[in-house]
Structures are given as C-alpha cells and as structure tokens.
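Tokenise the fold.
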Amino acid sequence: MAEFIEKTVVMEADDMRRAIQRIAHEIIERNKGIDDVILVGIRTRGVPIAQRLADAITESEGRAPKFGVLDITLYRDDLSTLQSQPIVRSTDILFDITDKIVVLVDDVLYTGRTVRSALDAIIDLGRPKMIQLAVLIDRGHRELPIAADFIGKSVPTSKSEIIAVRLNDIDGEDRVVIRQLKS
C-alpha cells in the first residue's frame, strides 16, 4: 500500500465552517429561498457536509431544507476495478424530487466521475427541475465536462497529490490537507 505524507494544510476547522456558511448563503440566494431546494449528500463525506449546509440554511431561513443521502456505488464506471464485493449502502431520499432543485453535495470535485455517477442515480429517482453541485474543494483535473455551482475553495493540485478532507463526524477532526506520495 502506498504511503503518503502530509504536505500542506488547506483548511482548518474555522475555514471549513466559514466556507460552508458562505455556500449555504449562495444556495439560498441563487435559488431565491429554499422552497424547492433539496440537499443530497453523496456518500461518504458529502453527507456530513450536506448536513452542515442544511444546518446553516436552517439557521438563516428559520426552516430546514429537505435532505437526502445518495449512494452511487452501483453507478460507478470503475465498479469492476473495485474490490470484488463492493459495499453498497442505502440511498435515503424519501420524497419526490420531480420539479425540485436538487443540490448534490460532495467533499472534493476531481475528475467529475463521481458527479456523473450521482447524476445517473438522481435521474433514476425522478426528473428534477434543476441539479446543482456544491463541493467543499475543487481540485481541478476534470475528465468530464462537469463544474461546481458552489465551491468552498479551489485548490490547484498535481495528479500525484491527494486532497484529504477530514471531518469530525467521521475522522475526529475538521481539516483539509494535501498529501504527497512518500518518496
């Protein structure tokens, strides 16, 4: 297994909190409120980020947006290269998305393939009026013509680097770091 070393801290907890607050306000502003907005977190780290966005929107608007969880495992184009028995978790979208504004939420936008898979999964659930994308980090290197509508921070990287988003809910701390392959 390859070993990585921490190269650069991109965001600390306060930076992440401010970025999520800003994205929440941008979502409200762009969509003229939250009447038709549904936040959908892409498993794994997109879910707690989406929950934080929902909390920030609730604080600002006085009511919570609808919230769902999306598992894209079976929609991935690299499924055959993953472990022989991929772990499929539940998708929890318990309401109709037809004619709604679905805001997909993920931690890092890289090649665009995860988002493509998420788009396929969402379309299988209904026909939204619009699909928007919110990411904490956009690191570039797109392989598909996909762009985020809401970005916490753009971080230019080389392909040999990895962006590690660490969330208190999963990892016990909030921070984003760039890791480099140990030489």
Notes: The mean pLDDT is 93. Residues 1 and 24 are 38 Å apart (CA to CA). The chain has four helices and eight strands.
